[in-house]
Design goal:
- By secondary structure, this protein is an alpha/beta fold.
- The chain has one domain.
- It is built from 8 helices and 5 strands; from the N terminus they run E-H-E-H-E-H-H-E-H-H-E-H-H.
- Helix 1 packs parallel to helix 2 and helix 2 packs parallel to helix 4.
């Protein structure tokens, strides 16, 4: 008896407004993938897998809620691939900067994905520098507040502790009370490394003689 092979595919439907230092997504702000192209990809993958007896699934990347038609994208992945967005990972930046944030959150709740998962790299300018976007920390906090305003929605986060932000730990505890509403899942040493792309985007070091 053999296990059924599964094809798991991430579909790059939209770029990301941040460039997190550990992320392979590169934070590129490329053009949004049209809905008709997304639908075509999902149907073709499903057709191929069903013809060959494979299971299938995947996830829209990288910031789904940055796509202009985010709600329709979520429905396409759910209806065609039966995807599970639980938890729904996001920087929070797109959600905090678009007027239809409530519609997106209510759609996630309807799709049985009531948890948004954020990532914090410190507070204020330390976090902003880690994701290479000015004001990103407060945008993420705003998205957390939006999540709490929609009944049935909750949020959690990964908190990256580094030598750059360890002195901010007390402030993070004050800024993020009640963020999760969930019991702690795990504590571990991160295996993430800074990407080459992130390193290339940093200012050149000043060498001293």
């Amino acid at each position: 008896m053999t296990d059924t092979l599964k094809l798991h595919m991430t579909v790059e439907i939209m770029g990301c407004p941040t460039v997190c230092q550990h992320c392979w997504a590169m934070g590129r702000s490329y053009q949004a993938m049209p809905l008709k192209d997304i639908s075509w990809v999902l149907h073709e993958v499903r057709r191929f897998c069903e013809a060959h007896g494979f299971d299938y699934g995947g996830f829209p990347m990288h910031e789904v809620d940055a796509h202009p038609q985010a709600v329709q994208v979520l429905h396409l992945f759910t209806e065609i691939w039966h995807d599970d967005f639980q938890p729904f990972t996001t920087t929070g930046v797109p959600l905090a900067t678009r007027p239809d944030w409530r519609e997106i959150l209510e759609t996630l709740r309807e799709l049985n994905a009531p948890t948004l998962w954020f990532a914090f790299h410190g507070t204020d300018e330390i976090h902003d520098r880690a994701v290479m976007r000015q004001g990103a920390y407060h945008e993420s906090l705003r998205a957390v507040e939006f999540t709490r305003e929609v009944e049935g929605m909750k949020s959690g986060c990964n908190l990256f502790l580094t030598k750059e932000n360890i002195h901010q730990f007390d402030q993070l505890v004050l800024d993020l009370p009640g963020l999760t509403g969930l019991p702690p899942k795990s504590r571990c040493v991160s295996r993430f490394c800074r990407t080459v792309y992130y390193a290339l985007r940093q200012p050149a070091p000043r060498w001293r003689r």
